[in-house]
Design goal:
The chain is an alpha+beta fold. Helices cover 28% and strands 34% of the residues. The protein has a single domain, classed as Nucleoside Triphosphate Pyrophosphohydrolase (Alpha-Beta Complex). Strand 5 and strand 6 form a beta hairpin. The longest helix has 20 residues.
């Protein structure tokens, strides 16, 4: 069984940052929430910080635990889902960068994504929790969807 940590970064519209898997990965060209495998001796939040730095070049602060989903594909995956925040970086704004093995990234409304984007299977299992968080975030900022 493999342990995975996934982070949800939301903007004021309740959109979540998603990345598209590259052609050389399993399930190529599918959208996913950034994250990755938890190494031995690592906590889920430590793995999140490392993976976001490696994958997107962003320094994040893991926040609230959102949900956990179990998925059986080639291996059994236990996916720990957290909300994440950008780490304050003085006066500069952090800008995410795609790695060469990623095809793209986008801000996505979870309700639209579940209908219109081809996502990795775990994203569909996370949808109820992700959508609830999205609605709460948009409402907090007065950006009703």
């Amino acid at each position: 069984m493999k342990q995975v940590a996934v982070g949800l970064l939301l903007n004021e519209f309740g959109e979540v940052l998603m990345t598209m898997r590259g052609f050389n990965k399993p399930r190529p060209y599918m959208w996913e929430y950034p994250g990755g495998l938890i190494n031995d001796g690592e906590t889920p939040t430590q793995a999140l910080a490392r993976e976001w730095k490696e994958e997107l070049g962003l320094d994040i602060v893991p926040g609230e635990w959102i949900t956990e989903v179990k998925l059986i594909l080639e291996d059994t995956l236990v996916i720990h889902v957290y909300q994440v925040y950008l780490k304050p970086n003085g006066f500069s704004t952090q800008v995410p960068k795609c790695r060469e093995d990623q095809h793209g990234m986008a801000w996505a409304n979870p309700a639209h994504s579940v209908c219109w984007r081809i996502m990795v299977p775990s994203c569909y299992l996370m949808y109820p929790s992700v959508n609830d968080l999205s609605v709460k975030t948009a409402t907090y900022f007065g950006r009703h969807r």
